[in-house]
Request: fold
Amino acid sequence: MKNDLYREFKNIFNKEAENAWFSPGRVNLIGEHIDYNGGLVMPCAITFGTYILAASNNDGIFRFRSLNFDDKLDIPLQEGYVKKGESWFNYPLGIIDYFLTENNKLSGLDLLFYGDIPISSGLSSSASIEVAMAYGLNDLFGCGYSKLELVQLAKEVENEFIGVNCGIMDQFAVAFGEKDKALMLNCDSLEYKAVDCNLGEYVLAIINTNKPRKLAESKYNERVSECQAALKALQQELDIQNLCDIDTATFRNHQYLIKDSTVLKRATHVIEENDRVKLAAKAMANGDIAEFGQLMYDSHDSLKNLYEVSGKELDIIVEYSKTNPDVAGARMTGAGFGGCGIALVKQGGFDRFNREINEYYTGKIGYAPSVYRSSIGDGVGTLKAMANS
Ligand code: GLA
Reply:
């Protein structure tokens, strides 16, 4: 694939690529919809991701081409940019805009993008392309941002330029991911530990619902506002900055402050999910996959019933998983509203799981899911070394 990309670059731009970068996508094992509430999350980088190949040009133009999409953009270097429609190139354009607004000196670039993350699958294709572009510009123009600063600016681009009020988990995971490790990330302090992803005889399956996601962004932003409303209500009596600053017991004593029943459900999910991540971290450290798996099921139920971000397709994946004795646990991963589920499946039972979930899901939904056996990979980096291999 990598050599093909270099060939494609040459075909498109009639010159050799000079630089190449890769940033992965991610799955989140547990800790959903709590990153923007200062919670603990447990994501891993996966080996699917976004590749960017680049060569500088002397005509002061950014040329964006993709092997995944037909739409392209040629835009002159100027002071800044605004989002243009819903096209894929808004993500790198937003990053370039950020670098320019911070007075970094950039020059024209011919850019080729290729991603093997299924689009709109909830595996963070957007964070992946943002972080790859930010890493690439920083590398090429010597802008001097630390990796954490790149993560923070990529999140800001997603919030301000793209308009999704996401937390920091995805950008962090795709930048700091490590092979065969899960990140235990505190989204308030941004302290993290890369812990062994101790799955024993289990493997991680990713099940893509293949459901086209609609309204996901507006629903996502609605959840963020509901959490802000819950925090405001609790702050009448509690000195806290984030919902995840309190545990479930403290919440129980103060939940009467939240009058709106929907807001109450959202806050209950957030605070209980944060406690579940702490238990999950212990279970992972002890190699107790049965316990970890049960916490995944509990997390899914809460996302379904209290946070209401699941959906028929994701629920069917979990429903089937519960009937298969080779599965320790399953849940939706990422924002929800479609996208992907994940399951911990015994290695020896993977083929049967794959076959049966295909039949079960197709029977109930009317089209097939895509099932992958996932490998946990490294975070963003340069592909320079491979240029001529
Ligand atoms: C999306 C967002 C993340 C996070 C998850 C849900 O992936 O980008 O910041 O909120 O949803 O956990």
User: Anything to note?
Assistant: The mean pLDDT is 96. The pocket of alpha-D-galactopyranose is lined by residues 28, 32-33, 35-36, 166-167, 169-170, 334-335 (CB under 6 Å). The chain is about 40% helix and 20% strand.
